[in-house]
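Exercise 7.
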Amino acid sequence: MIRYQFFPRSQGITDNIKSVVECFQYEVERIKSSDFNLSSNEVLEIIRPRLEAVDFIVETGKSKLQKISVPVLFSYNNNIDKSFNADAVSKDGKIVLEVEAGRAVDNNQFLKDIFQACMMFEVEYLIIAARNNYRGGDDFYKIYSFLETLYISNRLKLPLKGILLIGY
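Solution. The predicted structure, written as tokens, is:
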């Protein structure tokens, strides 16, 4: 089962973001964490063709040329001085997708994903995909609870228009 929630909850999702949800929904029988113990790279590989069909650029491997580099800082003559990698980025550069598996909550990878997306040039939305079932726990719900607290408390203002959490 694919679950998803957009934050802030006072807004709905855009068509571009909905198309990413549909990529996961289409492949749910091949990626659902209740049945499979796939790595994040394996999940990304399965949904890659669907993401590419909806105009996303997707990481193809771990070498420098296969990764998706998103600018963060610029130096003289507009050269990129610092960048962060993303699993996938919309062709317009406004939506970043990070697919997580075991490290999503245990190693707080989702927090790093949020921080990096906030630093990326022209990124407006972050999509985090996390397992519904990991070692008997529910990573989707754990991240959901964190994001709910973040947005309801209103104590920290993120430069993003929103974050979509997808549970697979």
